[in-house]
Amino acid sequence: MQPMRQHTGRVTPLDRANVDTDQIIPKQFLKRIERTGFGQYLFYNWRFDEQGNPDPDFELNQDAYKDGSILLAGSNFGCGSSREHAPWALLDYGFRVIIAPSFADIFYNNCFKNGILPVKLPEETVRTLFARIESGETVDLTVDLEACRIDDGNGFSVSFEVDPYRRHCLLEGLDDTAVTLQQEDRIAKYEANRPAYYRIHPEPVK
Amino acid sequence: MKPRTLFDKVWDQHVIHQEPDQPAILYIDLHLVHEVTSPQAFEGLRLNGRKVRRPELTVATMDHNVPTTDRSLPVTDPVSAKQMETLAENCREFGVPLYDLHNPQQGIVHVIGPELGLTLPGKTIVCGDSHTSTHGAFGALAFGIGTSEVEHVLATQCLQQSKPKTMEVHIKGKLGPGVTAKDVILAVIAKIGTDGATGTVIEYTGEAIRNMSMEERMTVCNMSIEAGARAGMVAPDETTFAYLEGRPYAPKGEAFEEAKKAWRQLRTDEGAAYDFRVELDAADIAPQVTWGTSPGMGVSVTDRVPHPESFPSATEQKSVKRALEYMGLEPGTPITDIHVDRVFIGSCTNSRIEDLRAAAQVVKNRRVSPNVKAMVVPGSQQVKRQAEAEGLDRIFRDAGFEWREAGCSMCLAMNADILEPGERCASTSNRNFEGRQGRGGRTHLVSPMMAAAAAIEGHFVDVRKWNLTD
Ligand code: SF4
């Protein structure tokens, strides 16, 4: 996994609540068996019309935001299906940070596993940023995971909270499977003591 | 010892190790796998030279992509076929048992787990699918995970998890006739919102839940995720044990007796505290119909499509407006005036035998409205056989329903079962998101009885007004 310490980029606004993973990456693109190449299908039904032409009204298609790498969204972002194709598509498209008042659990978790930083900020702060963008400003932010701080180099500066362990893993780009495998002794011991009635295939309990 | 909740007990039993300020390492008893969220996980194992630690605790099925038409024909979509073939190859290579397209037990992952007796009280169960919460109906701790975590579980049989909070959803009293488990969970979500339970594990309690069959409890737990919860649970009881006895993978004889003894302890202790609590009176719950593009946007069938201005915040008003626009609905329209073009009875929420029986009871000796195209997709091949043995397929076919092979089908429309733009569907599935059942398709979530009645009348009706005594 790509580690992250600090990221500077342009903010792309997506002022909608409850953006679900079916919108982030519609199901017709889930048939691929690779992790890469999903960016072209990100927000497909919003980005393109039925003929496949870009919808000029959709934020990601607008010149001011199309190179954004920080997505600013409404509450409960990433709800619905557990598909990890959603963070893969966001990452592949170029987003490294997502800012929203709240996230759905599975999506939030999936982001960290893929080197995307989801940042929860208070609703008012998110509103302030949306308002600045709506008034025609382009907003560039620096997100510092080490300091847990976001600023625009121009007076706007907020701190954010993130679970210390998740932060550590993202800073180091840690492979958590390797971390768990270090507990081999404990896992083996636990397995040896599992009750027989939980043992299944290929030897169903007699 | 401090009184504990059902969730606390199952959690505590599975923590292998916990460093301070780090997530717990949780042992996983059952890992269910399907074709869509697993290829990249197996690929990850190969790249890192890792094996599947416990292939015998891992069970795979094909459901999301499978055609629901004649199984003797080849799969026409080459990309779907490739994904299924990839799963078959991965299962062969890593020694994972697979219920493939032609297996007589094939079906939706959350239908076959319980059916086979793989789902047991007190287990931890994961799957790369958010509706894994279904299995919590047995008092298991069951939740959906992403593909990176699928890989992690394959390699370690463990998962790193921070301990969620708990929420009690208490449904007191008795449900009225024509009001089902689906209506209960839709009413709960309408009340607490789609993020009302984020970060929590719900335990469903109360007389209405106790009176439910296992299949009904599964319907309730299934949609916990639609309220944002990690998982939903119901404490196991005699209903649970009676359901499990004799299932292929369930323990037998003495082992079953021993298991029951342990499972009877899986209940929330007197005086144990939940972090949050919600209570609903079963008597207040009417059949539900969603009008919007999120499962929380639902009302009683006796209500009307709401006005955006009736919502408190500007953000909500905006999303309601957008939802109504997408759904092609005018505020103030009575729900029973909404006409449908399609009806879908199926999905891991409502495709089990009792769901089909309930729908068939409504359909019997009636005809599907000429303006409606209706289909029934059983959740598993076993459900299909059972329904056919009971003659339910005849009732549906005679009424004009299509009768299909098992799979996810139009729940997410990854196969050929898909809505056309603008088509309106009464669906027994769990998500009414924009485009979920096909781009531009409009989904209304309802119970199987309500879907069946809508198929007959061509619009929503209050199924309680029908005389369904036979
Ligand atoms: S039936 Fe629908 S919700 Fe259930 S597993 Fe299949 S796609 Fe997911």
Automatic annotation (TrEMBL), chain A:
One of its GO terms (molecular function) is 3-isopropylmalate dehydratase activity. The keyword Lyase applies. Keywords: Amino-acid biosynthesis, Branched-chain amino acid biosynthesis, Leucine biosynthesis, Lyase. Pathway: Amino-acid biosynthesis; L-leucine biosynthesis; L-leucine from 3-methyl-2-oxobutanoate: step 2/4. The keyword Hydrolase does not apply. It catalyses: (2R,3S)-3-isopropylmalate = (2S)-2-isopropylmalate. Catalyzes the isomerization between 2-isopropylmalate and 3-isopropylmalate, via the formation of 2-isopropylmaleate. This is 3-isopropylmalate dehydratase small subunit. It comes from Marinithermofilum abyssi. The gene is leuD.
UniProtKB/TrEMBL annotation, chain B:
It catalyses: citrate = D-threo-isocitrate; (2R,3S)-3-isopropylmalate = (2S)-2-isopropylmalate. It is an enzyme of class 4 (lyase). It comes from the Bacteria. GO terms for molecular function: 3-isopropylmalate dehydratase activity; 4 iron, 4 sulfur cluster binding; aconitate hydratase activity; metal ion binding. Keywords: 4Fe-4S, Amino-acid biosynthesis, Branched-chain amino acid biosynthesis, Iron, Iron-sulfur, Leucine biosynthesis, Lyase, Metal-binding. [4Fe-4S] cluster binds at residues 348, 408, 411. SUPFAM superfamilies: Aconitase iron-sulfur domain. Its EC number is 4.2.1.33. InterPro entries: 3-IsopropMal_deHydase_lsu, Acnase/IPM_dHydase_lsu_aba_1/3, Acoase/IPM_deHydtase_lsu_aba, Aconitase_4Fe-4S_BS, Aconitase_4Fe-4S_dom, IPM_dehydratase_rel_enz, IPMI_cat. Gene3D superfamilies: Aconitase, domain 3 (3.30.499.10). The keyword Ubl conjugation does not apply. Its cofactor is [4Fe-4S] cluster. The keyword Transcription regulation does not apply. Pathway: Amino-acid biosynthesis; L-leucine biosynthesis; L-leucine from 3-methyl-2-oxobutanoate: step 2/4. GO terms for biological process: L-leucine biosynthetic process. Binds 1 [4Fe-4S] cluster per subunit. Catalyzes the isomerization between 2-isopropylmalate and 3-isopropylmalate, via the formation of 2-isopropylmaleate. Belongs to the aconitase/IPM isomerase family. LeuC type 1 subfamily. NCBIfam families: leuC, PRK05478.1, PRK12466.1. Heterodimer of LeuC and LeuD. This is 3-isopropylmalate dehydratase large subunit. It comes from Marinithermofilum abyssi. The gene is leuC.
